[in-house]
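Usage

Read records sequentially. Each one opens with the input sequence:
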Amino acid sequence: MTAAPQRSVYRHAQMSRVLAPASIAVVGASTRAGAFGERALQNLKDFDGRVYPINPRYEEVGGRKCYPSVAALPEVPDCAVICAAREAVEDIVVQCAAAGVGGCIIFASGYSEVGLPERVAQQERLSAISRESGMRIVGPNCIGTVNTVRDCIITFMTLTPMPKIGHRNIGLISQSGALGFSLAQATARGVSFSHAFTSGNSCDIDMSDFVSYLADDPACGTIACVFEGSSNPERLLEAAELAWQANKPLIVFKIAKGEQGAAAAMSHTGSLAGTHATYQSALKGTGAIMVENYEDLIDTAAFFAKAGAASGPGVAVLASSGGAAIMAADCAEEHGVPLPQPPAELKALLESHIPDFGVANNPVDVTAQVINQPESLNACATALLAHDPYAALVVPAAYCTPMSIPRYAVFNELAGAAKKLICQVWVNEYLAGPGVAEIEQADNLAFFRSMDNCFATLAAWQRREELRKHPRKPAERLVGEADARRAGELIGKATTRALTEREAKEVLALYGVPVVGEKLVNSADEAAAAAEALGMPVVLKAESPDLPHKTEAGVIRLNLKSAAEVRDAYTIIMERANAVTPKPRVNGVLVQPMVPQGVEMVVGGRVDPLFGPLVVVGLGGILVELMKDTVLALAPVGHDEAVAMLRSLKGVKLLEGFRNLPSVDMDRLADVICRVSQFMADQREVIAELDVNPLICAGDRITAVDALIVRKE
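and closes with the structure output:
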């Protein structure tokens, strides 16, 4: 069987018959309690369309007339829910396709997930039927779908009741059916869902298609995904772009975080550009928001479903607990969320409502005295919400009692009048306590079970707003086609898979990457003469395709200031190189000028089997793997994106000037990143990995003193 051709994501109209059907056939309907066919029918009792049970053994099921086959129905159904065993599924799918059914949802499991060739082939045949007929399929190995707009609950699960939707709704998608429907149980605490889709094995419709569908569905305000992986992530990025164009926030929690894909990498940057990090970077590049924890997904999605545009750069904190206020300040600093201090007039107003043992700075601590004077809390909240620099107000719920419920109605009115959100952070452990449902159901209150996630979400909100206001410019071509072709020719002429440092720097110089000069020598006297010609101090390194990491091999000597030191270093390097087992090939020793001190950076990348060329930036030298302070992006990157990558590093303060180090010209360094990323994109067919490490940076002096290029096998 030939492989399925790559395709673009399906759009809303192509999936509407199966995901928003007007008529449903339940194939395998049953009267046996607990059977999938019995449960599926029971879950459709409130469906506002037409339901047709199908089973040749019955004349009636659940008070409905039962039909022997799809062909015997009085109309062609939009959706067929297949509740049959795997062995019978394919014939049913063929019958549905022949009848013109809009789509099938298949519960049966035991297909490609078990790994047996014959089961994989069974699933591939379902895919082929879908392609050839145009009939959409959800599953197999799927728990089902929910469309609350139509009261259309297609599943064999016993679901937590999902009430009619409001107007600030989450569309939920999960590859894992159990996790998806578990998250949908948030309806029990007042969260509103427009849809809940589970994809199962995705022989046809997959996660990307579901994102595309929800991007165009007016009932959905925010899209939340539990995502494992994809054999074609470019389609997921395509769908994410559709969500961005529709201004639908896309919130993703990715499971399966293993980095085995980079385990065999030869370069430092290759080992750091693992699959999970790549997914994170690629999705963030589309404006999607990645959450680190499963427990944070719904809270974050519910916030974005309610939040409008941020009106200011910071937030205010209003607490009745000093400890909660300190916790908020810690989390704000951790996530880079500004807490602007109130101006004198606002501070005076706050002080008039706060006892002298409270705090009128931001975070504001009104103390537990608010129990005796609840109006003081409302007055402070009103004043803070009215201050333009505060885009939102964070209020920790330190203790949960029924007495607090009326306060949430007041807060909702205050926030609505200010056209801002109040974030209620549930720092108590009464997780299902009084007030939770009232907060979730309020249009202007956001519920968080974690102070950390509250501020992580606020930071993501601010970043997303900034990106919408100032979209990053696409990459400009900085290197001519002739130089790119010449670079490819030099890579092709290399006699080893890992180019020598000298060969790698010759290639990168064609892309305008500033590299240190050097001379290859084969004796101690030649080394001394080269050092005199280049100017002391110098560096000596063994040149060997078998020793890509010279520091670890001990075949590099730095800051040599005399001919005698150079001769001694040459001898030591050759002795150590020859002592390596198995014995490496050694072309000679490189003599290079010693580049003055600066901030050491690494710029490199690899060609990912799923995403293609990537560029990686981080702290360099020996710190690259120790600190793992790196950021990556799909290559090529534009100047704005390169600067943003540098700004996102934890070690950015080193670049801004630290102690006796001069600040680094960020624009100049960003230009080098753009050029390296262009190299990765241009040479994606011939190279596997690249490492420019270290790139020594001081002011506008930026110099690559070592480089590694690994060709594809």
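Summary fields computed downstream for this record:
- Residues 261-274 have pLDDT under 50 and may be disordered.
- The CA atoms of residues 71 and 99 lie 6 Å apart.
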